[in-house]
């Protein structure tokens, strides 16, 4: 049976929905509380200096920018590429877009230059707001920006003309009249990183953003004194809408695994951070440093991790820095649907961890308010219409599908992707997450890997997460990755191993130990090859999603030698 959580009802008195209303409401409630805090340099003693805007200031600043956008030709419905580093201006600009009804197009620069340019061209944007290097790129690679007719420079304008952000904000200081945007009106286009396929533009409507704000607020019950350190820029935008202060971290958001842990800890201590959003890779780096140095983060009450499965070992290490009442929650979702499910560290470490080690998968928790989750039979084909016959038996592994107001309606001009990822049921659609998993008798769901990564060997299907968990229990193994070699349907399962950093091992003996370990479980008994890899290729955004397709090519060449 599906598990459904109930979301608080949206305001039905007005037909319009605009996510900027949440900021205006926060500005009315707590006008003088800090909304956004950002490091801007260091003084002569090396201490961090910060700038900030209160909620009233952020609301007024976004009003000024909204007036400037309209006067420069960026109006309701104008698709506009946004290439701005995390800073105070990033927050003001984003809420100005919502107030105007223009459509920001956001692409993760960490996906690589060529892929990023292809995404920008695919968006057919009519305007660009960005820092000087973005305009240099537009000038040097004009064929990717053919449709861009208007541009604004954030910072110093060089040789390309057009207004600067500073000029935009000086055009009008009156409150901006927010249009009557409708729930199904496009509010933004956010591109996926394409970690398991081509990057796609996901359509976000005002209804989706509004539902996300309500679901996050209902689940976490943030307090008036909460101060957040969101280490992923897009998630930071929820903070002002939730009435919570956001501190911009001093880091490169495209390289979370390479973060300087001292700077993250410095921000926590300087600003009294109570809430933190971070990828597993960042938690691993900061947690290991904190354990070595005996760091204690006494103000942190809550840590939220998402983007990839976070291992119990990472959770345990990071939690050693926090107080006894603090908790860590892992989130499950995707660009197309978030948040979907949440799971607490207490339940992971106290109950589900040993089951994960035995190959049950990673428990991802229960649905958040407003989301319904079901498990259907695994298929690589489009499923046009919903039918109860698609459901699997209780406890059986299948595809994870979700439905709810915070689930995005589709992709930007990609009908084939819509056909593969959406299942229509009346006026609404289910989203196929592209993941496989199962539901237990307590209403919790377990993640067993990406659908595209399963290895089909005749009548038997090997799922990545359950198989890999058995090898990850070995102390010499940092992480493992299951890949398939050979034609689809009759693949040979191979396990790739990345060793613990700096650990010296006898690989011949370790190979024998790991093969013996494989023979102890029916999940891994068919695995006959163990390959040692110097460092897995991973996604840039979270540094945690393993590019198993690349590993499979590498493994095939190694075995053929």
What does this molecule look like?
α1 packs antiparallel against α2, α2 packs across α3 and α10 packs across α11. The chain is α/β, with parallel strands linked by helices and 561 residues long. It starts with a strand and ends with a helix. The chain has 17 helices and 26 strands. It has a 15-stranded mixed beta sheet that branches. Strands 7-6-4-5-8-9 form a six-stranded mixed beta sheet, with helices on both faces. It has a three-stranded mixed beta sheet with strand order 24-25-26, with helices on both faces. The chain is globular and about 70 Å long.
Features of the shown structure:
GMP Synthetase, Chain A, domain 3; 15-stranded mixed sheet; alpha/beta; Rossmann fold; disordered N terminus; six-stranded mixed sheet; single chain; 561 residues
* Percent strand: 25-35%
What's the number of extended β-strand segments? 26
Average pLDDT across residues?
Answer: 92
Give the name of the CATH architecture of the domain at 15-204.
3-Layer(aba) Sandwich
Layout of strands and helices, then pairs:
Elements: E1 3-4, H1 20-29, E2 34-42, E3 48-54, H2 55-71, E4 79-83, H3 88-100, E5 103-106, H4 113-123, E6 127-130, H5 132-140, E7 150-153, H6 165-168, E8 186-191, E9 201-205, H7 206-220, E10 227-230, H8 233-236, H9 238-242, E11 245-247, H10 261-271, E12 275-278, H11 280-293, E13 302-305, H12 312-319, E14 327-334, E15 337-344, H13 345-357, E16 362-367, E17 371-376, E18 398-404, H14 415-421, E19 422-425, E20 428-439, E21 445-450, E22 455-457, E23 460-462, H15 464-472, E24 477-485, E25 492-499, H16 507-518, E26 529-532, H17 548-560
Parallel strand pairs: 2-11, 4-5, 4-6, 5-8, 6-7, 10-11, 10-12, 12-13, 13-14, 25-26
Antiparallel strand pairs: 1-17, 2-3, 8-9, 14-15, 15-16, 16-21, 17-18, 18-20, 19-20, 20-21, 22-23, 24-25
